[in-house]
């Protein structure tokens, strides 16, 4: 029962759309109807600027950090903690408060991965920053992070195999959410950072 409550609480926390709330606060309207239409930090950057985007990024990452931290504090296995984080990601992507139309869960996934295994996340994050700096494709960097971090968890054996597999499933969920971005990347018409 406690695990079920943890998962439900993680989903409800994840369902809070900070990009929606902050954009509304700036009286710009519904973030899902502006810019790229995605309820996340990158679209917040496009619509209302750097400061709000950084705030959204941090708050969305916190949605992934908190459930994992709570689960580990309660001495649940790491895989349970990652599943709790996964529930927050599901909440972000399909939020109950906003008609189940949310973002792609990148920042929340970053929060989960950092809590689950810091050094693989750090290495992947540094590489992703370089990729985004060189290409200006945030989506490409996000996709690389989602695959590379779980792979590095396997390589470094920083987490149990079942936890790394769960992280990989979460990464694949994010890649699936990026399927339209992948199509645009392949077709050469994906929007670059700053466009």
TrEMBL record:
Keywords: Acyltransferase, Cell membrane, Lipid biosynthesis, Lipid metabolism, Membrane, Phospholipid biosynthesis, Phospholipid metabolism, Transferase, Transmembrane, Transmembrane helix. Its main location: membrane. The keyword Transmembrane applies. It catalyses: an acyl phosphate + sn-glycerol 3-phosphate = a 1-acyl-sn-glycero-3-phosphate + phosphate. Belongs to the PlsY family. It holds the Pfam family G3P_acyltransf. One of its GO terms (cellular component) is plasma membrane. The gene is plsY. Probably interacts with PlsX. Pathway: Lipid metabolism; phospholipid metabolism. PANTHER family: GLYCEROL-3-PHOSPHATE ACYLTRANSFERASE-RELATED, INNER MEMBRANE PROTEIN YGIH. This is Glycerol-3-phosphate acyltransferase. GO terms for biological process: phospholipid biosynthetic process. It is a multi-pass membrane protein. Its EC number is 2.3.1.275. The chain crosses the membrane at residues 43-62, 74-94, 106-130, 137-155, 161-176. GO terms for molecular function: acyl-phosphate glycerol-3-phosphate acyltransferase activity. It comes from the Bacteria.
